[in-house]
Design brief:
Layout: E1 10-11, E2 14-15, H1 19-26, E3 33-38, H2 52-67, E4 71-72, H3 95-111, E5 116-121, H4 128-138, E6 142-146, H5 149-159, H6 173-182, H7 204-207, H8 226-239, H9 241-247
Parallel strand pairs: 3-4, 3-5, 5-6
Antiparallel strand pairs: 1-2
Helix pairs in contact: 2-6, 2-8, 3-4, 5-8, 6-8
Length: 254
C-alpha cells in the first residue's frame, strides 16, 4: 500500500483539499489518479437513508484517499435507480446522462493534469459505469471501476459476513454494517427485524424491486455490525492497491 501520511481528506462526504494539496500530491506520483464516488438516492427500507449508496461510496473513497495519494472528488449523488421508483423519495437520472457526466468529469480532469479516474460505485444498478470505463480504456485513457465483485467477496469473507453476495442484495448485512461503522447516526431502529430473502430475481429489470420485496429490503440486515463494517472497509482499501499500481504504471499508454 502506498501511504500518503495522515491527512484530513473529507468532512462528511465533501473533500477538503485545496488546489495546492492536489498539486503537491501530484508531484509525487508518475500519474495522478482521481477517485469519484458514485452513489444513488433511492429507498433502502425503513431504517437506512435514501443516500445510503452515496454514503457508502464516499466512505470507501475517503478510506482510499487516506491510504493512497489520490485526488478525492465530491460524489455524484443521483444515478440510475429506476428499479426503485415505486418507493417515495427515490430519484433517478438516465444511464445516458450518467455516462455523459462521468465522461465529462474525466475529460476535465485530464485537462488539469489528472490522467486517471477510478469510479467508486456504491449502487449495483449503475450498470452503465462499466461501459464508461470500458470505452475509456479502449480509447487509451486510464480508468477503472471499483470495487469489483471479487473485491466485495474478499471483503465479505474477511469481515465474517454470513450472507452471500446474491442474498445480500439491498439494505442487507453489508450496507447496514458499513453505515453502523461509518455513520451510525443515520441507522434507524428496525434493521434488527427486517430480514427478507428473495434470491431468484431474474425479472428484476422488467418488474422492478417492488415485485420482490414489500419493505424494500432484500438481505439480512439483522446480522450487521460496526465491527464487520470496519473490516469490510479495511479489506477494500487493501484491494485497491493493484488498481492504483496499474493506473500509475509508467508502461501504460495514456
Amino acid at each position: 500500500m502506498t501511504g500518503s501520511g495522515a491527512r484530513t481528506v473529507a468532512h462528511g462526504v465533501l473533500p477538503t483539499d485545496t488546489t495546492e494539496d492536489v498539486r503537491t500530491r501530484g508531484a509525487g506520483v508518475s500519474a495522478q489518479v482521481a477517485v469519484l464516488p458514485v452513489g444513488s438516492f433511492e429507498q433502502h427500507g425503513p431504517f437506512l437513508p435514501l443516500a445510503t449508496d452515496t454514503l457508502i461510496a464516499c466512505t470507501v473513497a475517503r478510506e482510499i484517499a487516506a491510504a493512497y495519494p489520490v485526488h478525492l472528488l465530491p460524489p455524484l449523488t443521483v444515478a440510475c435507480s429506476h428499479e426503485h421508483a415505486d418507493w417515495p423519495g427515490t430519484v433517478s437520472i438516465s444511464a445516458t446522462t450518467l455516462h455523459a457526466v462521468v465522461r465529462d468529469i474525466a475529460e476535465s480532469l485530464r485537462r488539469s493534469g489528472v490522467e486517471a479516474l477510478v469510479v467508486v460505485n456504491g449502487h449495483g444498478g449503475n450498470y452503465v459505469l462499466g461501459n464508461v470505463v470500458q470505452e475509456a480504456s479502449a480509447r487509451g485513457e486510464r480508468a477503472a471501476l471499483f470495487p469489483a465483485s471479487e473485491d466485495w467477496e474478499a471483503a465479505r469473507e474477511r469481515a465474517g459476513v454470513q450472507t452471500s453476495l446474491l442474498t445480500d442484495m439491498h439494505a442487507g448485512e453489508i450496507e447496514t454494517s458499513i453505515l453502523l461503522h461509518a455513520h451510525p447516526e443515520f441507522v434507524r431502529p428496525g434493521y434488527e427485524s427486517a430480514d427478507f430473502i428473495a434470491d431468484d430475481r431474474r425479472h428484476l429489470l422488467t418488474v422492478g424491486m417492488s415485485a420482490y420485496t414489500e419493505s424494500g429490503v432484500i438481505g439480512r440486515p439483522s446480522l450487521g455490525s460496526a465491527e464487520k463494517g470496519k473490516e469490510l472497509l479495511t479489506s477494500l482499501v487493501e484491494s485497491f492497491e493493484p488498481y492504483f499500481a496499474l493506473l500509475t504504471s509508467a508502461g501504460r499508454q495514456g
